[in-house]
Amino acid sequence: MDQRSVLIIEDEQPIVEILKYNLEKEGYAVQAAYDGAEGLSLALSQNPDLILLDVMLPKMDGFEVCRKIREQAATPIIMLTARDEEVDKVLGLELGADDYMTKPFSIRELTARVKANLRRTTIDKAQAAPAEASEVIVSGDLVINIERYEVQKRGAVVDITLREFELLKFLAMQPDKIFSRESLLENVWGYEYYGDVRTVDVTVRRLREKIEDDPSLPRYIVTKRGVGYYFNKA
Length: 234
Ligand code: CA
What we know:
Elements: E1 5-9, H1 13-25, E2 29-33, H2 36-46, E3 50-54, H3 62-70, E4 77-81, H4 86-94, E5 99-102, H5 107-128, E6 136-139, E7 142-145, E8 150-153, E9 156-157, H6 162-172, H7 181-189, H8 198-211, E10 221-224, E11 228-231
Parallel strand pairs: 1-2, 1-3, 3-4, 4-5
Antiparallel strand pairs: 6-7, 7-8, 8-9, 10-11
GO biological process, one term: regulation of DNA-templated transcription
Keywords: DNA-binding, Phosphoprotein, Transcription, Transcription regulation, Two-component regulatory system
Domain Response regulatory: 5-118
């Protein structure tokens, strides 16, 4: 297997060093950028497999970097937020980050997250490779092409992130079955003990804005109050 690459965008040198050391020990090729502008430029020119992105950065903050990367690439992004503030977590996810971690974090938890986020892309690439009969889920005006990693609504391709696609695929492959947020976190994000169920809510909201005619009255991704979410095939 090719060596996977991680780009760290973080202005605190000691954090960069400890992350670099530990990720290299795990076998990743690691590059670092110390401000937002340099980070964005490396993200777009080097096309890393995963990006660790700090929020408070010189020249361009992490939110702006995230937004700009998302305009061009679906690379998994884990935001590193310094403050345990709701607004930071939610804003990062709204802008298309796949995940976030609040500082101070444990290296063990961070490497677990990196692995979980990379595992998803590895599986997807492996599954996308063979040109077998394409698996396509059609529901209403929605076409979900599992192998091509593509969602169309009324014939138009929906601009969707890796995580949003994974969530939609997971729900749509088992229509009408209700999943708790914890179960979705475990199955779609790949965590067992880490993670915050609000991540699921934010991703559902973002997904609804992309695939629903009226996100406040969802027809596809439906909330079962007090239980979780399900894909409504009918
Ligand atoms: Ca910083």
